[in-house]
Design goal:
single chain
């Protein structure tokens, strides 16, 4: 059981690190958008690569940061009954949600996106604009990163839920649950 808990914590730490790193792109987006506006309206200049970079960063923030959002329970959900439930009931709901909703969703997105991404890599797809960013294939790859990171976070949730259901953890919050019989 300790190995399951260690694996779940490792996944949590990985998504936390990735999420915090990706969050800095939001600052970069604001700064670049400000520069684009100033260049356009003050100096009459426009750079397509700068405008496209904002789209790239926006996509990466949402796709690559989704595992972090799941870790921090930032996704939208209706928790009228869940909020007041006992830890064991929450763990069961989380486990069933991962098995019957999250895993099939990630598998579906991976299955549909893989040929799309592979085709993009096969031709090293770039921007349709001459002065645009010639890395569309890299942006499309973030769809696969999304499925991996969200899937891994789902695995961590499932593992912590199993530990709660077996009485090893008192709750299955993101790395804050305490083990029975000692701290982790």
């Amino acid at each position: 059981m300790q190995a399951l808990h260690s694996l779940a914590r490792g996944i949590d730490r990985t998504n936390d690190l990735i999420g915090r790193a990706v969050a800095w792109l939001t600052l970069a987006m604001v700064i670049i958008q400000f520069v684009v506006v100033v260049l356009r309206y003050v100096f009459g200049l426009g750079f397509i690569w700068m405008q496209e970079s904002i789209l790239y960063m926006h996509g990466i923030v949402f796709l690559v940061g989704a595992g972090y959002t799941l870790l921090k329970e930032g996704h939208v959900r209706v928790d009228i009954f869940y909020r007041e439930a006992r830890p064991a009931r929450k763990a069961l709901v989380d486990l069933l949600g991962v098995i019957f909703l999250l895993v099939p969703f990630c598998a579906l997105v991976w299955t549909v996106a893989l040929p799309y991404v592979m085709n993009s890599w096969a031709v090293l797809e770039g921007s349709k604009e001459t002065s645009g960013i010639q890395g569309v294939y890299l942006l499309k790859t973030s769809i696969l990163a999304f499925t991996v990171l969200v899937g891994l976070q789902g695995l961590a949730i499932a593992l912590k839920s199993i530990l709660v259901l077996n009485g090893v953890l008192e709750d299955n919050g993101d790395t804050t649950g305490t083990e029975r019989g000692g701290a982790h």
